[in-house]
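Can't paste images in this forum, so I'm doing it all in text. The chain is below; anyone willing to post the predicted structure tokens underneath?
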Amino acid sequence: MIRVATDADWPAILEVHRLAFTHDPSVPHLVEELRAGGFDVPSLSLVAVEGDRIAGHVMNSWSGIEGTDERLLQLSPLGVLPELQGRGHGGDLVRASLDGARALGEPAVLLEGNPAYYGRFGFVRADELGLLPPPETLVAWAFQVAVLDEHAELPRGQVLYAPPFSNRG
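Text version of the structure:
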């Protein structure tokens, strides 16, 4: 089951990210900073529930376009408890995020991730559509966009992550 996160879920959400990102202990702090700074979209902070526990979480926050007032949603971070990975929770969270963004009338969603995984959800290289990866991006081919409204004119230019992404150490 996928649902919107509640305040009571936050200890479990932080634990999901702590366990899912043992290679990057800054992710739980990033999640807290995005939420505390108002960069996230609360209705698109979603949890996957298995049984009586939080199995996964995805957050959507705003990214800007350099030199403009335009912004696009960014899906990140997405974490699933290691022992519950491979059961479809991650995919369900991605689909629910895209559906939620579409329901809000958003034209697209950005992310940085593995194209082999995210391509099945309609993500393509963002730079091919004129959205240049943020300076913090490790590899340009991992910066992707899912176009939700093919009739919308997407902004073009250098994408800028929300400050908590840029301030990661």
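Residues 2-166 form a domain with the Aminopeptidase fold (CATH 3.40.630.30). The chain has one domain: 2-166.
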